[in-house]
Fold this sequence. Notes:
By secondary structure, the chain is of the alpha/beta class. It has helices at about 20-30, 35-45, 55-65, 70-80, 100-110, 115-130, 140-155, 155-170, 185-195, 205-215, 245-270, 310-320, 325-335, 335-355, 365-380, 385-390, and strands spanning about 5-10, 15, 50-55, 90, 95-100, 135-140, 175-180, 200-205, 275-280, 300-305, 355-360. It folds into three domains: about 5-80, no CATH class; about 90-155, no CATH class; about 170-390, P-loop containing nucleotide triphosphate hydrolases (Rossmann fold, 3-Layer(aba) Sandwich), CATH 3.40.50.300.
Amino acid sequence: MSKLLVLNEAEDVRVPFLRGILVRSLQRAGVDFDKAYEIATSVREELKDLQEITAAELRVRVAKHLDFNGGQIADRYGKRNGAPAAIVVEYGDGSEAQYSRGRQRLGLLCAGLRAEKAVSVAAQIHAHLIGNDIRRIHHDELRRTTHRLLREASGPKAAKRYLTWQAMRRSGRSLIVLVGGATGTGKSTIAAQLSHVLDVTRTQSTDMLREAMRMMIPERLIPVLHRSTFDAWESLPARAWASHEDKIAAGYLAQTNVLRVSCGAVLGRALKEGLSMVLEGIHVHPSLLSEVEDYADAVVVPVILGVLKPKELKRRIRGRGSTIPARRAKRYLDSFDDIWTLQTFLLAEADRTGVPIVANDDIEQTVRDVILAILRVLSKQFDTSPEAVLA
């Protein structure tokens, strides 16, 4: 098909016909995404033999496909100048903000929706607002509308998860997410994605805390601090180890115990300020939970990431060569058996203490799995009935 140009006669400008642009224009007029995509595809097929069409002629052709709604959407589409309609969201404190489909999408991701479904439902909610000519809406009414349309689109379980997250947001309580796992399991990547989706502005890596402590404390004072977690046992007093895993675990726990104070200080500072936080690193161990026991109002959710196939974990460690010096990547690969042993220990500890284990096979799915783990914890702590949350 030759490239079709759309002529804006008023400005004497020609631009390519793009199906995606037409889809968005139809959505702004109140058409849901699936129908808008169907119409845009049909229009493109009708125009496949043309090289040029005026913008006015294009609007007429599109309007013919909109008669299914009694002509109301067709009228709105014909009158539009192409600028998206502004919808103002009013809040209980008197503040206002422009409605954002991107923010709506993130809120749906927090309800455990898959990414593509969150995009689709967010588009449906926006189309509903535009289609009903809603230009101002109170935040509470927007949440009720979101809950209703989400239930219709994705079912009662998704709607229930939405209520769970909204109950957490309304509570004002701090959320602390602890992301642990062995070298190469993707902790920092998942933590960054989580902080974006959950709108958590404070994140911290235990590796960075360890580096700071190494700068301040000489190796002769705390030698275990200056080793990697998988070979920290070499700095411990000589003894006969019962097994290879025992010595790996002993070194790891010794180093983790040194870092507990600094991890606790960082968490404590966030909680005193009433902030939520994602703390990630290999030193995230169930024993770290004791550092936040004094903050009973906080919701603390630990998870351990795992890569359950040795070849895949090796591939990821090898791939880290683009972000860390090649010599360190080689060192990790040379010590792979010890890293694998440490991961085995961490997963066993998680299983023993009831900490959720998330297999990190795919970033998007892993983020969703962690969010679902968070929602399971939240559902036990909040009244998630529509009457309680949406009143």
